[in-house]
Specification:
The protein is mostly helical. The chain has two domains: 2-90, no CATH class; 93-181, no CATH class. It is built from ten helices and no strands. It has helices at residues 2-10, 24-39, 43-52, 56-69, 78-89, 92-104, 112-125, 133-143, 146-155, 160-181. Helix 6 (92-104) runs antiparallel to helix 7. The radius of gyration is 21 Å and the shape is elongated.
């Protein structure tokens, strides 16, 4: 475990103090999850490492909470930690605001790449909205600009990756055509 902690700290993972913007909590978890993926951490190791990154109010909260979350003799799982962490630092109202933002998300003036990045970021916060892969594809498609959306509907694509790639290719073609015609 000490070797894992050493490797983890070399990645310079962010600390969390529990103060400020409620959207900082999911961003912090996302950054740590990247480090966990690189290191191949188990669900139990993740909890051990994440607790090391809690400071100030967040550390005090965890000391007061961990005995209720992980009863004596039960494994400390990442899912249980994040559920309780979000319950404390990413309030229900903040989650509802993000969910509403996800439901209203439209490409508008964004490129397909920018739209996909925002879609993915909001989806990470509200994954239950599109648990079915077909719902994810439809939601992505329905947020595209009208001219792209109408072309995507006719293609009847059922895979998210393919939907993104096709939208990107069509957008690139539109840009090339506009440049060629001088508009």
């Amino acid at each position: 475990m000490s070797k894992l902690v050493e490797q983890f700290l070399k990645l310079k993972p962010p600390k969390f103090d529990g103060k400020g913007d409620p959207e900082a909590a999911p961003r912090w978890v996302e950054e740590l999850e990247k480090a966990f993926e690189v290191l191949g951490c188990t669900k139990v190791e993740r909890v051990t490492l994440v607790v090391y990154q809690l400071q100030d109010d967040a550390n005090d909260w965890w000391k007061a909470t961990k005995g209720r979350v992980f009863l004596k003799g039960t494994a400390q799982t990442w899912a249980m930690f994040t559920e309780n962490f979000y319950g404390k630092y990413f309030s229900k109202s903040a989650r509802e605001r993000k969910l509403a933002e996800f439901m209203r998300l439209c490409q508008e003036s964004m490129t397909v790449d920018q739209y996909k990045a925002k879609f993915a970021r909001l989806l990470k916060i509200s994954p239950r909205m599109v648990e079915d892969p077909q719902d994810k594809v439809r939601r992505f498609r329905d947020g595209l600009k009208l001219d792209l959306r109408s072309q995507m509907i006719s293609l009847n694509i059922k895979d998210y990756g393919e939907m993104y790639e096709r939208a990107q290719a069509i957008e690139r073609d539109q840009v090339d055509r506009a440049a060629a015609s001088g508009s």
